[in-house]
Amino acid sequence: MKTTILKHLIVMIHLLFLFNMKPVFAQLTQRTVKESEYDKWGKVIGSQISEKGTWSTISISYATTDTVFLINNLSKQQISIAGIREGSFMKENSFLWLKNNNLSVLNLKTLENIEIPDVKKYVVSMDKNILISIEKHNNAQRIVLRDIKGNSIKTIENTRNYSFDNETNRMVYEKIVDTSVFLEYIDLSRPLSFNAVAHKEAGSYTNFKWNDNGVVILSQNENALSSICYFDLKSKNLDCMNTDLIEDEIDQTSNTLYLSANAEFIYFNAKKKLVNRTTNDSVEIWYGSDQLIYPIRKMRDERGYTPYTWVWNRVENTVKQITDDELPNIHYLSNSNKLLLYNPYQNTTDNKLINDYDVYFYDSKTAVKKRIIQEFDPNTHLFGNVGQTDDFVYYYDNNWWWYNTKLETATNLTSSIYAEWDNKLLDEGYQQIAWGIAGISNDKQYLYLYDTYDIWKINVKTLASTKLTKGRESQQVFRFELLTKSKNTSDIRLIDETKNNRLVINDLNTRIKSYAILKPNHTIDLLLTSHDFLYTKLQQAKLTTDFIYLKEAYNLPPELWYKKDIKSEPIQLFTTNKQHYLYDWGTSELLHYTTIDGKKLKAAIFYPPNYKKGKL
Question: Which of 69, 133, 301, 606 has the fewest CB atoms within 10 Å of its CB?
Answer without folding.
Answer: 606
